[in-house]
Write a structure and sequence with these properties.
This protein has eight helices and no strands. It has about 200 residues and is mainly alpha-helical. The chain has a single domain (about 1-200), classed as Four Helix Bundle (Hemerythrin (Met), subunit A) (Up-down Bundle). The longest helix has about 30 residues, at about 1-30. The radius of gyration is 18 Å and the shape is flat.
Length: about 200
């Protein structure tokens, strides 16, 4: 049983790291050679390659975090009191974002530029909250390595965003340019001020 646990622990970490490296290389290649059309892609092998590697990374990260708890024990309740609410709230906001963006746009269709709702605070709110959810997972599991994987997730999202911005500029032109100027890529003081204003209304 102990050998099985160590195998799951090690293999999940290697799967997360390996898929992150492959996906990072894949997205970086597309930045250098956009004519390849590797990302964004709404269907076909390009779509399945990017999403397959991304889902492998996310799944392996969750398994690794759980195996950290399994190996190191439950630990202090405070880490759950902090980490679980961050994780649940952030993941909930990520799912809520589908309402505004729509599943088709989420999976790289061009169904219209969405700038309202949560997209008024950040151009990539689901990426922000997904990273925060992984940070919450790292806190709850008491795992510094999971927090490192959250940092790697941010780098992956940054590469996604660089590719997507070029695609959105090509597809929406001036409308997306204006959106870029008015709304932060991730989060900055404008996001916080808009949240404050929305609460005070």
């Amino acid at each position: 049983m102990e050998n099985l646990l160590y195998t799951i622990h090690a293999s999940s970490f290697l799967a997360a790291l390996g898929s992150a490296l492959m996906l990072g290389g894949y997205l970086s290649m597309n930045l250098r050679q956009p004519r390849l059309g590797l990302w964004p892609s709404a269907s076909g092998w390009r779509h399945h390659t990017a999403f397959g590697l991304f889902r492998l990374f996310c799944g392996a990260t969750v398994v690794f975090a759980l195996s950290e708890v399994w190996m190191n024990g439950w630990g202090h309740w405070v880490r759950y009191a902090i980490g679980v609410p961050i994780m649940v709230l952030s993941f909930g906001i990520t799912l809520w974002g589908y309402r505004f963006l729509g599943l088709d746009n989420t999976y790289c269709e061009s169904e219209g530029l969405v700038t309202g709702g949560m997209y008024a605070y950040s151009r990539n709110p689901q990426y922000v909250t997904s990273v925060l959810a992984t940070v919450g997972l790292g806190i709850a599991s008491g795992s510094w390595m999971t927090l490192a994987l959250a940092a790697i997730l941010f780098v992956i999202y940054f590469l996604f965003v660089l590719n997507e911005e070029r695609w959105l500029l090509h597809g929406y032109g001036r409308a997306f340019q204006e959106y870029m100027q008015s709304t932060p890529r991730f989060v900055d003081e404008r996001s916080l001020l808009r949240v404050r204003d929305a609460i005070l209304q």
